[in-house]
Give the backbone structure.
Amino acid sequence: MDDVYVLGIGMTPFGRHPDRSAADLGSEAIGLALKDAGVSRKDIEAAWVGHVYQGMAMGQRALYAAGLSGLPIANVENACSSGSTAIWDAAMSIRAGAYDVVLALGVEHLSSMFRGALAPDPTDIEAQIGLTMPGIYAMRAQRYMLQYGVTPSDIAHIAVKNKKNAAMNPLSHFKKPVTLEEVAAGRLIADPLRLHECAPISDGAAAVVLISRSKLSQYGSNRAIRLAATSLRSGRTEVGLVDMTVEDLTWRTAEAAYAQAGIGPEEIDFAEVHDCFSIAEALRVEGMGLIPHGEYVSRVVKGEMDIDGTFPVNASGGLLGKGHPLGATGVAQVVELVRQLRGDAKERQIKSPKVGIAHCRGGKAQGVEGTACTVNILVK
Amino acid sequence: MDDVYVLGIGMTPFGRHPDRSAADLGSEAIGLALKDAGVSRKDIEAAWVGHVYQGMAMGQRALYAAGLSGLPIANVENACSSGSTAIWDAAMSIRAGAYDVVLALGVEHLSSMFRGALAPDPTDIEAQIGLTMPGIYAMRAQRYMLQYGVTPSDIAHIAVKNKKNAAMNPLSHFKKPVTLEEVAAGRLIADPLRLHECAPISDGAAAVVLISRSKLSQYGSNRAIRLAATSLRSGRTEVGLVDMTVEDLTWRTAEAAYAQAGIGPEEIDFAEVHDCFSIAEALRVEGMGLIPHGEYVSRVVKGEMDIDGTFPVNASGGLLGKGHPLGATGVAQVVELVRQLRGDAKERQIKSPKVGIAHCRGGKAQGVEGTACTVNILVK
């Protein structure tokens, strides 16, 4: 079984792109990833394309726009984990020995296609009566506050941190830091979560070129970063479970990744996690066993998860700051891990990281097991 | 690299199911496949789920309904090749050594969700001015008639054959044979194609349990059938190419499958092919090099592709007779190959087949490279 490396990365600016199509955004990310990898179009043997709302044959349209023709292409969907599922599947094909050089693309023109919280599925009875994504995370935040004695203002520090980081990321949706006071003055979305604590509706694309170890030597690249583990699991939202502050699904997914990588949580230097809401970041980092349950928020308040802190989280700006074009998000996280591990992250560079972890999850709000979670571990 | 076998198959009745959900249909197919394979729910390690229009986290919903919990699940979309792409991806995971026992499900509740030919994508300018799927296949039929001197009535024999076969398949959408006269009296959809020559809008699901050779011995199953090849390629519709009766994409996909299986077209005993329209069956069988270009229709007229003919095609009833729930179609084809190779096809049983081939393709009508094609080869 061959090791898998990320050879090249590419990402469009995240934000509103009213004049561009998803294929156009996808094509740009592909072009950048190929250039960064130093491979040509004809070197790519297959592609997996993650998106949620972009309709039939999205991947075929994006690859064609990028000048790639005739390939095996599979479109994959796993809600907010669609892009990271594309990486999971693409990596599998290299491990299978089927291909040596493949592409994983995540893309979403969300601003034109969003049919989520605003118009929930009429068959989703729980969402119809208020159990939407903001509602779920607000409940979980309330429980977290009660259980661990933190305040809405403490949780808001997560948004402040991520928007500060985003301001240093030229590809971010939001380029302006916000103060605690500005977060507190924001519109209340679902108590205690306010506007700045909710991920925006973004358009964008991100792509990675994956390569087998055996082929890597041909490219002589010392910029390649090893994808030491990629895991995918499904489960349900924690609302209604024993303790809605504990992410069993996140743990099961991370546990599988640690086993695959042969790396424990104590060896991870930094993380990109799925902060669709401020509180979500706490639930994920704790869920992966990286910080003990109930400690995350107070440690963010102390600055430990800042870029120059002991355990930087969402140095890219996260979903809250960098933006959240659903299908693109999981790939963009890996793009950030690679930038950081290469030492290419410029003013938001973390000091000498060796091992990074990325976490995504998403799915149906309703009480079925409709959530997909992915964890990727990258090693310099 | 481990060989891949189909251990179990399951399929719901195809047709209109106004009172059932896609998750319910998917769950039924999964249950049948597990039972047929003789494996339990906990033996399944991962699943790939093909569908087109069923919305977010379809696979998670179907597996949960079937009592399967916590697994890695990826939803895959490739238009009418979605189900066969799920098989392609699932087989890859076994070849990767990642899993030994996996599930591929195809599912579609098309009657409730169809947003295709009736309401073409407003950005698809070619479809807006008439280049819909029926329009494309009608043009190709016209060209085929001109080039090879066959008549609409000759082509209609394909529909007569497939509906005759469907009448022997208890899971078919259509249970009634039609005569040539009935086809000719049908409503004209796009000249020369009439109603009976167009695949219906069906709901349904089909599932297969795939297993590695190394694990197979544990189950001692002599009913397992080897998946000797599974290939996927992308391309464009042939309209506007040099000769629209020649399916270059189908050939490239089949050629890759022949190479993978180490089996040439001359060794194939029977086929399930993507007869979304009557003429399509001719284009596919010729496209795969199984019959010389221009000969297929006249050989159907002679009865050569009947169940008791020299080269049976669509013994299941095909898309025209068995029905076409988009995501389920590619898996249902493999279900039929397995039934035939096991000798379990009852009154529609082909005599002692050893090697079967399945072909799917589908995608956007428009002039970009939006078509996905799959070919699976199964060997007894």
Summary: Residues 326-342 of chain A form the longest helix (17 residues). The CA atoms of residues 71 and 180 of chain A lie 49 Å apart. Chain A touches chain B through 50 residues (CB under 8 Å).
